[in-house]
Automatic annotation (TrEMBL):
One Pfam match: Transketolase_C
Superkingdom of the organism of origin: Bacteria
Keyword Oxidoreductase applies: yes
Annotated source species: Streptomyces cinereoruber
SUPFAM superfamilies: Thiamin diphosphate-binding fold (THDP-binding) (SSF52518), TK C-terminal domain-like (SSF52922)
Entry protein name: 2-oxoisovalerate dehydrogenase subunit beta
GO MF annotation, one: oxidoreductase activity
Amino acid sequence: MAVQKLPLAKALNESLRTALETDPKVVVMGLDVGKLGGVFRITDGLQKDFGEDRVVDTPLAESGIVGTAIGLALRGYRPVVEIQFDGFVFPAYDQIVTQLAKMRARSLGAVKVPVVIRIPYGGGIGAVEHHSESPESLFAHVAGLKVVTPATPSDAYWMLQQAIQSDDPVIFFEPKRRYWDKGEVDTEAIPGELHKARVAREGTDLTLVAYGPMVKTCLEAASAAAEEGKSVEVVDLRSISPIDFDTLQASVEKTRRLVVVHEAPVFFGSGAEIAARITERCFYHLEAPVLRVGGYHAPYPPARLEEEYLPGLDRVLDAVDRSLAY
């Protein structure tokens, strides 16, 4: 059947399987992606079915993994790299920023570097240091990179397909605490645009915009607000670079209020750019300042404290109430 109910993790696995079956130039590579199937089992069974030349277990060397992927892409392959945890990407940051992001511009478009870098990100799983970070704004700031993140199994399947087919490098952030959330996936549907935002819930009084792991939290907040007679619209951004400001603008012009929610620290987070751009675009429509909800400007805490750090239902609803009070 084309329509299946899958956990987000399994949807990613099926997407990689489809890509490997469809295009012999697709190569999956990373630490423990082969025999182990990845620490989250996203690549489970792929090496067994496609061989060690297509699903490659690499040494523990993120810079080498990404550097090798760049070389493969220059030779016509479409490498899909897995960084095991968000905090492990920084040894490869130099390769990503100084090489991967700039190759196409440096060659005036003659060279394509179709590399996908998959990064499980965010907290909520009780992990140790360097395993629960949200570095998306660091990559969104770099011209030449596309930065996307799915919030549903359907988007996980289709957005990964589109990322692999893109001729530009894509940083693909996977919300790890949502890996086990289930949803319907139609593997024969026609996907929407990769960088188009999605209105996840209609509303008239206020817009909540989120992406990745916080979309579910915002939908729960909208349901809680509805019990008090407040109509909250939820927009799933899906793409962090580029951002679909047209969909956001249309929503804010309707509701006249905006609250931006993400797990990453509020300070210099992606919400700051959204707040500034929507204020410029919608100044005469806004009836309250754009508010932001996110993590604190502090290193990610030990697991016992992460529930205090992560923006949850209460913090989102507090921002909704503050906005509606203007």
